[in-house]
TrEMBL record, chain A:
Pfam families: ACAD9-ACADV_C, Acyl-CoA_dh_1, Acyl-CoA_dh_M, Acyl-CoA_dh_N
Compositionally skewed regions (Basic and acidic residues) per UniProt: 68-79
Family membership: Belongs to the acyl-CoA dehydrogenase family.
Oligomeric form and interacting partners: Homodimer. Interacts with NDUFAF1 and ECSIT. Part of the mitochondrial complex I assembly/MCIA complex that comprises at least the core subunits TMEM126B, NDUFAF1, ECSIT and ACAD9 and complement subunits such as COA1 and TMEM186. Interacts with TMEM70 and TMEM242.
Subcellular location: Mitochondrion inner membrane
UniProt-recorded name of the protein: Complex I assembly factor ACAD9, mitochondrial
Amino acid sequence: MAAVPLSRASDGRQGGRATEPSKGTGGTAGVPSRARDRRHGGGAESSEGQTAWQERRAERGNGTAASRSHEGEQHHGRTEPQGGGGPAAAPSRASRHWGRAGVPGPTARGGRWGLPLKEEVFPYPEISNEELAEINEFVGPVEKFFNEEVDSKKIDQDAKIPPETLQGLKDLGLFGMQIPEEYGGLGLSNTMYARLGEITSLDGSIAVTLAAHQAIGLKGILIAGTEEQKAKYLPRLASGEHIAAFCLTEPGSGSDAASIQTRATLSEDGKHFLLNGSKVWISNGGLASIFTVFARTEVVDKDGQVKDKITAFIVERDFGGVTHGKPEDKLGIRGSNTCEVHFENTKVPIENVIGEVGGGFKVAMNILNSGRFSMGSASAGMIKKLIELTSEYACTRKQFNKKLSQFGLIQEKFCLMAVKAYVMESMAYLTAGMMDRPGFPDCSVEAAMVKVFSSEGAWACVSEALQILGGLGYMKDYPYERYLRDTRILLIFEGTNEILRMYIALTGMQHAGKILTEKIKAIKKGNMGVALGEFLTRLQDTLGRKVDLGLIGDRGVVHPSLQESAKKLEENVYYFGSTVRGLLSRFGKTIVEEQLVLKRVADVVINLYAMTAAISRASRSISIGLRNHDHEVLLTNIFCTEAYFKNNYAMAQLEKYADENLDDSIKKAAKQILEKRAYICSHPLDKTF
Amino acid sequence: MRLSWVRALPRGLWGSPGVPELCRSLCQRPARAPTERGDTAGTPKPRGPQRRHPTEGDTARGDTPRGDGDTARGDTPRGDGDTARGAASAWHRHFQEIRDKERGPEPRDHRRGHLGGDTSWGGTSRGDTFRDDTFKGDTSSSPPPHHRSHQHHDDSHQQDPRDGDPSEPGSPRRGPAAFEAALRAMERWPPGRGGRLALVEAALAAMEALGVERSVAAYNALLRLLPRGPWVPRGPVQRLLFPFPRQQECGLQLLEQMERYGVIPDAETRFLLLGVFGPRSRPLRKVQRMMFWLPRFRHLDPHPLPPQPTRPGLAAARLGLHRMAGDPGATVTVIQPPVPDTGDDEGSVQPYIVSSQSPEQRELLAQHDPARAVFVEGPFPLWLRGTLLKYFVLRGDPLPPHLRDPPPDPERSFYFPLELQLELERGPWDDEEFDVDEVEEGPVFALCVPGAGDRRTLARWISALQEQNPILGRAPVVFRLNEGGADPREGPQTPRLGTGTPPGAGLEPPEEGERGGEPRKNNGE
């Protein structure tokens, strides 16, 4: 029996119903006591440093912290004997991700990875009253400015943000939202930044201009810049005197670092780099005076070989040799400035290297990963606005003596918009809240999930809104078609959703794979406890078991009104664990190539995270008695039920082989098309005789 | 055996008017006729060697009065009596003269109309009934062997279509106009008698030479030469007894030739056959089957060639390279035209060089280690229907394993990991590989079809490639030419069956050199 999990079984079937040995049911036979102890320890740790309310809830959930669990944590607890010896950042990110996606759980890991204690998704993160007051102070004037002074239609038509609008934004400090106060910025936390993003997103062009400036343009200086660089550049960037742009994409290079052609060569005196090359589709490229540029440099690596590596530079327009093309004419976000930027023998002083020479790849990755989370709140803000506009219409327009709002098909669309907005809001603020916890936790996977979910949700919602409006939505006299055009870019920029799905799925797979290998190693070493535990859980699984990860019940963290949703979440999480295991045993390393599989994995993970966020938020709302919390519960239950079925479907597909779940056929059809580079079917009117 | 006693039977038994025909057809069956055309040996005719039957004319003549009536009834759109021309009569001759006179200024009759020679053979004038399928859809067929044996099957032919070297490329005598002229010439013989079967067979044999072998209109024109009515069996019993075998064989032969060339019969073919052989006759059954199957087979070939055989030369070289280099991005360039446009030797002849290289190949070549040699190999044969091309490849050795899959760069993808670090090994029982003997082949960097396979020409190709692939200047280029050995034509010829045989199911292209007057290939000079 022990041999079975040792290898990627060729028939992969055992992966199908293979289960986690670690069951949340605290006293289950087969869960070694060591794991239980550790979990208890984790639960105890987790209650530290929380607000009073959280403490109250944590107390309630303390015991459950032990019992609720997810594969990741539990495996660690069991199979990882060497305490804090794990590698630092990457695995922790992965494990946190699976912990989150799989609901509660990261607590147990806190000390073990040598990282600061992590909070959980339960309870939903909160900000203090002072912070709330502070953010409300900002929100008022910004909202007023956007409602009164921003003429989105004109911006869209002229493909330009008028200077006075830009000046207004600068005056409001919106160009330095996340820059610390000592550099003249607003110093907003991620949560507050997300809150403001809700409002700035009312105009897509402005939102993109601001995001290109501070979410990616100057993020490099903020994250990896030296003190001097920060002192030199940030104040003027914060005031909006300088606008920043992020120059990564090249004609031949999107997400592939190896094809970056821009080159920086060290001058003979060793004080300058000469930058040559061109970048395309640079947001703010025409406005910016500070560029974060990525270029190849020659680096001597450890074994003395000269290698090309990516380096990040801060380039001022005044360095000379920086030119830009004319602004691109785009489908949406037309007011934002996007153009080519060319560098020709631009002299960049060596002090302007961000991070170290040859370390640009990490800088780029960090910038890209950190910039995404705000898209959730931004999309939610836009959808909320759309709901207002369209419901107004639906409640006034009459057809057949009935208001539009009385038709079921219209009601369905409003429900969909509300659910999506609610969930993406929950995800966005949950992620922002986690990022605001001390210790710079790495939430890039969560941020990616937020981005994927919210961009797709936004596109669907805007499309439905247009549908409600009928022909009206199609007319340029109304703002709706502009929303539609603006929303389309969300699926594309900051990493296309396809790429982010790969990121989400593979990061998770990497982590799950580690756990699996560790367990296999333990069994190989002759640890009969592990082997026995494995056997027992499998046996239990075949007999059919009730999944209880401890979200609900007497010591649960979820409000009883959400019991059903939480149960569904638990069930999904549990079986997702076994599905992933089956996939790993079937594909092993080659799962990297199985993009159709990974896409489904990513979809499930995103749904799980979304369910978690929604349940957590709704739970909190009921518990503290927020207004209309019953509506939140309703939305949460709707979403969770739908997502549950979607997950089940995806997991059922994942357990099948490629010939059964259509993957083979899909690939074959695509291959035939791509071979001819055309649609190859004969015309329906064609004849042979 | 005398069968005249049959006449004594009550007529009603045989379906009255058919009895004489039945008798005749029964009488015709034994091979009484001298086999004038024994040279068609090898033709797998179920009924023995083809022959021109002396009674054939009699048949026609005997039926002429009634045949005319049938023709009238036979709803022929051309009312000019073409169909009855099987009858050798004074009337026929008279008509012929009239027609020849009238033919001068303008095309008068329908056949003239659509045979009237221009390039748009088949169906311009009568687009409704003629569908010009023939130039598109016959990709899977391969050309038949040459009908040499037919060429002089009847010495009394006054004008053989080949006599004037009609197959000379570019000859005005090739094509629909020439076919029509030949048909007319053949019609004239023998002026006073039928002999239609021999005429049709001769025309069938000549079709390829005239370049109309893929035109359904040409076949229809041939069918129109056959008389309507006299060969239609009367009554079911006659139909049972293989009536008019000789005539039906002729129809079948025509259909077989159509099939061989992938010509799909159209409604008119069927209609004509119906008029000639009657319903449920063997030719009609065949044409029905062909009309069922051929359209279904028409697009079987995923890589269709143009229907017309290409002649060796620049166009064929381009075509061959396009076929071999499947990459749509591959560029086919003429490195050296056969006749230089400018320079001292303007107007002289030099071997052409056509080369193909895709961007991917260029990239591969750029990554080639210049310390290791690249090889020019060839010539390899490439058949395009009946045309043999020789091509050469520029290739490298297979990469040593350590260079084949460079370790993935962890700092490559900005967004997602390109590989996982897992230590999930396969157990020995997880061997999912098939036992396949794989031949390792090195990368092919470029392809070329030169007009001559000598080293000088190939060196010119390499030097031309060097413009875009500077690495060729540094890497040693080794010529591995198997001179003369690769020409399959010089090996022993596969014995071919005679004319009636479908040519080896297209597996093997027909020999080139047999075609009269056609240069085999203009390389090697």
